[in-house]
Amino acid sequence: MQLRRSFELGQRFLTSVREGQGLKPIARAAGIGKETGYRWLREAFVELRQAGIGCGPAQQQIGYSSPLVLQWEQARLIAGRTRGTTWPVT
To answer: Which of 8, 44, 54, 77 could form a disulfide with 90 if both were Cys (CB 3.0 to 4.6 A apart)?
Structure first.
């Protein structure tokens, strides 16, 4: 069973990331794996992008910037094309 970001733990995790704390120590303190933390960050980023927020501002809002974000963006765009959905690219 995957932990959901909507739970209180997920919200606290994302808040800690926005406050500038490191991903690995936050995940360790929360008792989750890095992979779960990355998934929660990716989900939050994709939601912001789908809402029409630009890539840079979305990164600022989640408080996380990494080369991984480019991979998330590419996957989001590919998924949109394969599902017939068009998202604004800003």
So the answer is: 54
Q: What values do phi and psi take at 34, rounded to 5?
A: -55, -40
What domain range includes position 30?
8-82
**Is residue 53, in this structure, part of any structural domain at all?**
yes
> Are 64 and 17 spatial neighbours (Cβ–Cβ below 8 Å)?
yes
Asked whether residue 87 is assigned to any structural domain, the reply reads: no
pLDDT single digits (tens) 24-57: 999 999 899 999 999 999 999 999 999 999 999 9
Distance between CA atoms of residues 19 and 82, nearest Å: 36
Name the nearest CA neighbour of 58 among 75, 73, 71: 73
Whether 72 contacts 45, CB under 8 Å: yes
